[in-house]
From TrEMBL, chain A:
Pathway: Protein modification; protein neddylation. This is E2 NEDD8-conjugating enzyme. The keyword Transferase applies. It catalyses: [E1 NEDD8-activating enzyme]-S-[NEDD8 protein]-yl-L-cysteine + [E2 NEDD8-conjugating enzyme]-L-cysteine = [E1 NEDD8-activating enzyme]-L-cysteine + [E2 NEDD8-conjugating enzyme]-S-[NEDD8-protein]-yl-L-cysteine. Transmembrane segments: none annotated. The active site is at C108. It is an enzyme of class 2 (transferase). It comes from the Eukaryota.
UniProtKB/TrEMBL annotation, chain B:
This is NEDD8-activating enzyme E1 catalytic subunit. Its EC number is 6.2.1.64. One of its GO terms (cellular component) is nucleus. The lineage of its organism: Eukaryota, Metazoa, Spiralia, Lophotrochozoa, Mollusca. InterPro entries: E2-binding, ThiF/MoeB/HesA, ThiF_NAD_FAD-bd, Ub_act_enz_dom_a_sf, Uba3_N, Ubiquitin-activating_enz, UBQ-activ_enz_E1_Cys_AS. It comes from the Eukaryota. It comes from Biomphalaria glabrata. One of its GO terms (biological process) is protein neddylation.
Automatic annotation (TrEMBL), chain C:
CDD domains: APPBP1_RUB. It comes from Biomphalaria glabrata (Bloodfluke planorb). The keyword Nucleotidyltransferase does not apply. GO terms for molecular function: NEDD8 activating enzyme activity. Residues 30-561 form the THIF-type NAD/FAD binding fold domain. Keywords: Ubl conjugation pathway. PANTHER family: NEDD8-ACTIVATING ENZYME E1 REGULATORY SUBUNIT, UBIQUITIN-ACTIVATING ENZYME E1. This is NEDD8-activating enzyme E1 regulatory subunit. One of its GO terms (biological process) is protein neddylation.
Length: 180, 439, 568
């Protein structure tokens, strides 16, 4: 059915009480919903340096099992006005010895790039990140060296992870301490 | 300059001085229709690029005079194959300025006002002045923004939409030989946000592929753009890639070719490199002409009611013959933008934020669990209270005890409330009265 | 700059052209379109010579969209003087040009758009030109005719048809747009189809594919290699197993395909606890079963080309296209063993770089072998029809011969070759040969279904009725306000006569007759702009030999924003 609309019926009175401020954008409304409904596992926390800015925040993951137990890893989230059509930009701010996170903090997680869909939420990403620490995937690595060690010598990988989290060199790369 | 001459409006007047069986039911043929176009109707064109240049020409020749155009871009050489209001000598100048000046010179009576600016630089007072907004944009973000702006200006009386607050939005888009045009009556028909799924997602290759298993030339270019550039910072610390700087593209090209030859991948060249880095969409004059023409025809129909407007979406593709598909895009029940009708909350300025929270939780209509409340002040978000996130809760807890006045909340202020009980963030409008009125 | 009344062609050049302009880099200027039709498409465009008859709004809008992307040259033929109503709808006429030659003013203003395009004009009546100097039109690559009366149009159509010059007819009438492609034969190698099956040959694997796949052993691979083996190889291997279990058949039914998917699923590695690993390549293989196992065959359209007289009866004057089609036919009957040459490309898929590139090379190499075989046939055929020196070691391109790169492009596109043969205007306008079946059917549907939303064919019939009105009264229906109502029954009568002549009994709703009278032959700028875009793109298709033109009539309904294409 065609909805009838006629410009001629419009009365342009020009008079309108000017409301304060600009309306929140669709991206802003959506992120507020995402944030308000964050349902994080107990190993994850979210930090808002500025509570008024819901578009930029940090997620801290402190795994309590497997290789990365006892570590504390900070991820920065930047949500743009394209959200949720475009995924947020996520970087790891803690230097980590991990097959799927490189030394610049780039994270290889499918839902952050090729498999992102607008129905996914910030919560989905946090779960994805947590999963990376429980099940590092050496088959599709970003840090190839770490992946190779994990594949060939699980024991050595475990030692390397522990060493890096205590603060120290793995090969020529120095890792800051990130144990809680 | 002579603005009227014999015969000038002969063609258009056949449509406007005569009616027909397919005219809009409210159409009354009369000389006043053309006078309305010429003297009263005010149109906003967003974008002075491929579509925008065409739109300005089309609208000006269809009798519209008071036209504003917004564009934040300057003219580039690669625009000249279709943006026909620009010449080689104009490269580097503001698109809006050059386009407006050209139309005003060529078409007697046309009064195009240029704005070399972003759409976000203007507020509601600016947008409210227009009868119709027509967009020729290549950015989804900008489309969503103007869509949100027009929806935020809708007024409801006793739950019914006040039609005088509706500013129709006509939107066109093209890529290569494909295009689409649509008419949006905010609050009445499907809006940009209702049909967000119609926009194709950006192509993002997996990072691990880019980093270690490149197979396509594009993977090599993305490696240099995403991973190598920030590491090497070839043009200095913190210098971002400028897709228009040939030196930047040349560096990326060379590094991409190096990487490609390492993996025996062929096909990395300058054109592809620039295409990937700038995410270039192919574009040609003909498709822009077609889509703009549809949009301008629709603006003309909306302004004159000479016939029914497009209902409401048209796709176009002329790769194989000419294919068009016209359909009615449906309004989404849970649309983030247009399903959200502001609801009124009556309070006084001495009431506390806690009172609002209590109301939202206890009122039978809402029965919210843990509402998170924000507002917009001076164009920026302000989080008033959010219980579910510890770090925000701690920093906003003290707001609960503050009065609305202390928080700087005014009459007609909008509050945005998210809660598990509602599918989207809801918009409320504060109505601040005195205690007497409320009791 | 000169003006003329005689049949002398005036070449109009912008000062900028004489000064060689600003020397903008064409790679830059045309970047956004080169991504669509390539450098070779651009070269074809730049060597084209386009003639426009009538600098109407529709006409100048078409030319605008051709001058911008850079055709070689245009010539406007128009004897009219600029009138006030022209300026009101035409961006390339100005108010101070009223009374001047419309051809000249439009040529000047259009030439400003692109200094690389040469514009000229001829201020002469088309009817006179067709009478006195019809060979004038022979020099053009394409002729565009806008807003022409029926009689002139048919004369022009005849002259161009005889000379084999493509004609594009375009007109705007109120909210109606009309375009007619008139081209005897147009052959397309690069049709750029939107969605196509990949040419993978899993059902008919070639030697290189056999060898490559057989050289890989899934069982002995480490975990990483196993999960990075391209799905194409996986599908090859599991298909092999399936065929062995099923008497050499490939799965064709839904049930059989499901069984194959199950078989692939079982191949996924499991961890110590027996849980299957995440192997994306296996998932991709399973997803590809449906789309990749269709039987490879020569498409019916290409088979039809093989039987075309132009392919079967080659001669010295045969188009290169037909020589190549014939070579293709001979290839499929010999080396190809019933198949076209391999396309030689594969889609992207999960894989390590090395094996993906190896697999890609396997396909490319076979495509190269096939193309070389086709080239052999081409050269033999050219030799047979006396078009190539028997000994031409460097194979430099000579007129009538073919380069290897052309043959390669042809082979890559072998499954998508398209030949367009339009009917002539004469056939359309002669009752005996008119496509009345088509028209009759459309009216009938329109009549039966009051809410028929899908078809704009009726608008064509009304335009023909309006033309008949013009022939009878020398004006279009309700062109003048004072005959607005009086012309309605007259147009109805014209329509009835037209339908009667066609032997069609179904009627056309009165609403349409009223609507046509409302339009009064007006030309609305936005309708002209729409058709300007459409017609320009059709010219580009004709000139570049890429993409597929309209066959043969396109009707645009600007009221409903719908369109219809019909063969008339």
């Amino acid at each position: 059915m065609i909805k009838l609309f006629s410009l001629k019926q419009q009365k342009k009175d020009g008079e309108t009480a000017s409301e304060r401020g600009k309306r929140a954008s669709a991206a802003q409304l959506r992120i507020q919903k995402d944030i308000n409904e964050l349902n994080l596992p107990r190993t994850c926390q979210v930090e808002f340096p500025d509570p008024d800015d819901l578009l930029n925040f940090k997620v801290i993951i402190s795994p309590d099992e497997e290789f990365y137990r006892g570590g504390r890893f900070v991820f920065s989230f930047k949500v743009g006005q394209g959200y949720p059509h475009d995924p947020p930009k996520v970087k790891c701010e803690t230097m980590v010895y991990h097959p799927n996170i490189d030394l610049e903090g780039n994270v290889c997680l499918n839902i952050l790039r090729e498999d992102w869909k607008p129905v996914l939420t910030i919560n989905s990403i946090v779960y994805g990140l947590q999963y990376l620490f429980l099940e590092p995937n050496p088959e599709d690595p970003l840090n190839k060296e770490a992946a190779e060690v994990l594949q060939t010598n699980r024991r050595l990988f475990e030692q390397n992870v522990a060493k890096s989290m205590r603060g120290g060199h793995i090969g020529t790369v120095y890792f800051d301490r990130c144990l809680i | 300059m002579e603005t009227e001459w014999p015969g000038r409006w002969d063609h258009i007047q056949k449509i406007l001085l005569r009616t027909g069986p397919f005219a809009h039911p409210s159409f009354e043929p009369s000389p006043e229709v053309l006078s309305f176009l010429k003297e009263t109707c005010k149109i906003l064109v967003i974008g002075a690029g491929g579509l925008g240049c065409e739109l300005l020409k089309d609208l000006a020749l269809m009798g519209f005079r008071d036209i504003h155009v917004i564009d934040m871009d300057t003219i580039d050489v690669s625009n000249l194959n279709r943006q026909f209001l620009f010449r080689a000598k104009d490269v580097g100048k503001a698109k809006a300025d050059v386009a407006a000046a050209f139309i005003n010179t060529r078409i007697p009576g046309a009064k195009v006002t240029p704005h070399f600016a972003k759409i976000q630089d203007f507020d509601e007072d600016f947008y409210r002045d227009f009868h119709i907004v027509v967009c020729g944009l290549d950015s989804i973000i900008a489309r969503r923004w103007i869509n949100g702006m027009l929806i935020s200006m809708l007024k409801y009386e006793n739950g019914a939409l006040d039609q005088s607050s509706v500013i129709p939005m006509v939107d066109g888009g093209t890529e290569g030989f494909k295009g689409n045009a649509r008419v949006i009556l905010p609050g009445i028909t499907a809006c940009v946000e209702c049909t967000l799924g119609l926009y194709p997602p950006q192509v993002n290759f997996p990072l691990c592929t880019i980093a270690h298993t490149p197979r396509l030339p594009e993977h090599c270019i993305e490696f240099v753009r995403i991973l190598l550039w920030p590491k090497e910072e070839p043009f200095g610390a913190g210098v971002a890639i400028d897709g228009d700087d040939p030196n930047h593209i040349k560096w990326i090209l060379e590094k991409s070719q190096e990487r490609a030859s390492q993996y025996n991948i062929s096909g990395v060249n300058y054109r592809l490199t620039q295409g990937v880095v700038k995410r270039i969409m192919p574009a040609v004059a003909s498709t822009n002409a077609v889509i703009s023409a549809v949009c301008a025809t629709e603006v003309f129909k909306l302004a004159t009611s000479c016939c029914l407007p497009l209902n409401n979406y048209m796709n176009f593709n002329d790769t194989k013959g000419v294919y068009t598909y016209t359909f009615e895009a449906e309004k989404s029940e849970g649309c983030l933008a247009c399903s959200d009708r502001p609801q009124v909350l009556n309070f006084t300025e001495t009431d506390k934020l806690q009172d609002i929270i209590n109301h939202l939780q206890e009122n039978a209509t809402y029965q919210m669990k843990s509402p998170g409340v924000t507002t917009s002040m001076d164009g920026k978000n302000k989080t008033l209270y959010m219980q579910t996130v510890k770090s925000i809760e701690e920093k906003t807890r003290e707001n609960l005890k503050k009065s609305l006045k202390e928080l700087g909340l005014m009459d007609k202020q909008e509050l945005y409330v998210a809660d598990v009980t509602t599918p989207n963030t809801l918009t409320f409008q504060l109505q601040l009265g005195t205690k007497m009125e409320n009791s | 700059m000169r003006r003329t009344k005689g049949p002398v062609l005036i070449v109009y050049k912008m000062a900028a052209t004489l000064n060689k302009g600003t020397g903008l880099d064409k790679n830059n200027k045309y970047d956004r379109q080169l991504r669509l039709w390539g450098d070779h498409g651009q070269a074809a465009l730049e060597s084209s010579r386009v003639c426009l008859i009538n600098a109407s709004a529709t006409g100048t809008e078409i030319l605008k969209n051709l001058v911008l992307p850079g055709i070689g040259s245009f010539t406007i033929v128009d004897s009219c003087k600029v009138k006030g109503e022209d300026v009101g709808i035409n961006f390339f006429l100005t108010v101070d040009s009223i009374g001047k030659s419309r051809a000249q003013v439009a040529t000047e203003l259009l030439s400003e758009l692109n200094e690389d395009v040469a514009g000229d004009f001829l201020e002469e009546d088309v009817d006179d030109l067709l009478e006195k100097n019809p060979s004038f039109f022979s020099t053009f690559t394409t002729v565009i005719a806008t807003q022409l009366p029926e009689k002139t149009l048919l004369h022009l159509g005849k002259v161009l048809w005889e000379r084999n010059i493509p004609l594009i007819v375009c007109r705007c009438y109120g909210f109606i747009g009309y375009l007619r492609m008139v081209i005897k034969e147009h052959t397309i190698v690069e049709s750029h189809p939107d969605n196509t099956h990949e040419d993978l040959r899993l059902d008919r694997p070639f030697k290189g594919l056999h060898e490559f796949c057989d050289s890989l052993d899934l069982n002995s691979m480490n975990k990483k290699d196993h999960s990075h083996t391209p799905w194409l190889v996986l599908l090859y291997k599991y298909l092999d197993i399936w065929k062995n279990m099923n008497g050499g058949k490939i799965p064709s039914t839904y049930k059989e395909k499901t069984a194959l998917k199950e078989l692939i699923k079982e191949g996924v590695r499991r961890n110590a606890e027996g849980v299957p690993d995440d192997e994306e390549n296996f998932e991709e293989a399973i997803r590809s079963v449906n789309s990749s196992l269709h039987a490879t065959a020569v498409p019916a359209e290409i088979q039809a080309l093989f039987e075309d007289p132009c392919c079967l009866n080659l001669n010295t004057d045969s188009k290169n296209f037909w020589v190549m089609v014939r070579a293709l036919k001979e290839f499929t009957e010999n080396e190809g063993q019933g198949l076209l040459p391999l396309r030689g490309s594969i889609p992207d898929m999960t894989s390590d770089s090395e094996r993906y590139i190896q697999l890609q090379t396997v396909y490319r190499d076979q495509a190269e072998i096939d193309a070389t075989a086709v080239a052999g046939h081409v050269h033999a055929l050219l030799h047979n029809i006396g078009r190539e020196e028997p000994l031409n070691p460097d194979r430099t391109k000579k007129p009538g011969t073919l380069s290897d790169s052309e043959i390669r492009t042809f082979c890559r596109n072998a499954a998508f070759l398209t030949v367009l043969r339009c009917r002539s205007l004469e056939e359309e306008y002669t009752t005996e040969t008119a496509n009345l079946e088509e028209l009759g059917q459309h009216i009938l549907e329109e009549e039966e279904d009051a809410n028929s939303d899908s078809d704009d064919t009726v608008l064509y019939i009304l335009l023909r009725a309006a033309d008949r009105f013009f022939t009878e009264y020398n004006r279009y229906p309700s062109y003048f306000d004072d005959t607005l109502d009086a012309d309605i029954p007259k147009l109805k009568a014209c329509l009835s006569k037209l339908l009667h002549d066609w032997g069609l009994t179904a009627g056309v709703k009165d609403d349409y007759v009223h609507e046509i009278c409302r339009y009064g032959a007006s030309e609305l700028h936005t309708v002209a702009a729409f058709m300007g875009g459409v017609a320009a793109q059709e010219v580009i298709k004709v000139v570049t030999g890429q993409f597929v033109p309209i066959n043969n009539t396109f009707i645009y309904n600007a009221q409903k924003q719908t369109s219809t294409t019909i063969i008339l």
